[in-house]
Amino acid sequence: MNIPEEISAHFAAGTLIAAIAQDFSSKEVLMVAWMNQEALEKTLQTGNVTYWSRSRNQLWVKGESSGHTQRLISIRYDCDGDALLLEVDQTGAACHTGERSCFYREIGIDA
Amino acid sequence: MNIPEEISAHFAAGTLIAAIAQDFSSKEVLMVAWMNQEALEKTLQTGNVTYWSRSRNQLWVKGESSGHTQRLISIRYDCDGDALLLEVDQTGAACHTGERSCFYREIGIDA
Description:
36% strand; homodimer; 16% helix
C-alpha cells in the first residue's frame, strides 16, 4: 500500500482521519467524513470512496445504498498527516438531504 | 450571535468542530483546523479567522505571528452541524511549511 507513515501513525494510535471530498471539476467542497486505515486502503484499491461511519461503527462505501457514489480522482494529505483531501467524481447528491453539498446553509457574519 | 443551535449543541457537549478553509477565488482547499464556540464567535465578530489550537490548547488567530491571515468571506455549516466551510481571502501561505495549501502531497492510487 501507498499509505504514508505519517498517516499510518495516526491510525495506529486509534485516531480517525478527516476526509474532505471536493468535486474534481467545479472544486465545490461536498462533504467531510472520516476514514480509518481499512477505509483508506479500500478507497485506494477500488477507487470507490469508502469512509468509516462513526455513528454506525462500520465501513461505509459512499453511495452503496443511494447510488450516489464518489469515484476517486486524486487524494492528498496535509502537513500533519491527519487530514485528507479527495477530488471526486460525484454521482448525484453528496448529501443525504438531497443537496449537492452538505454545506448548503450559511451563517451570518457580524464583521 | 448567529451560531445555529445544531452547532452550539456540539460545543455544549465539548466537541470541537472541523473548519475547512477554502480560497474564495481559486476554490483551492487550504487547510483544516478546529473551532470551539469562542473561536467561531471571534471569527464572526472580527472577520479574522480564529481557530482553537488543539496542540497549544488556546485560541489561535490565524496569521497573528506569521502575518498569513485569513479574512473571512463566507461561512457555511454542514447537515450534521459538526463541520464548517470557510471561504477566505488568504494572505501568503496557509501552511506553516510555506506551501500555499497544507494539502501539497499526493498519495498514489492503486485502482
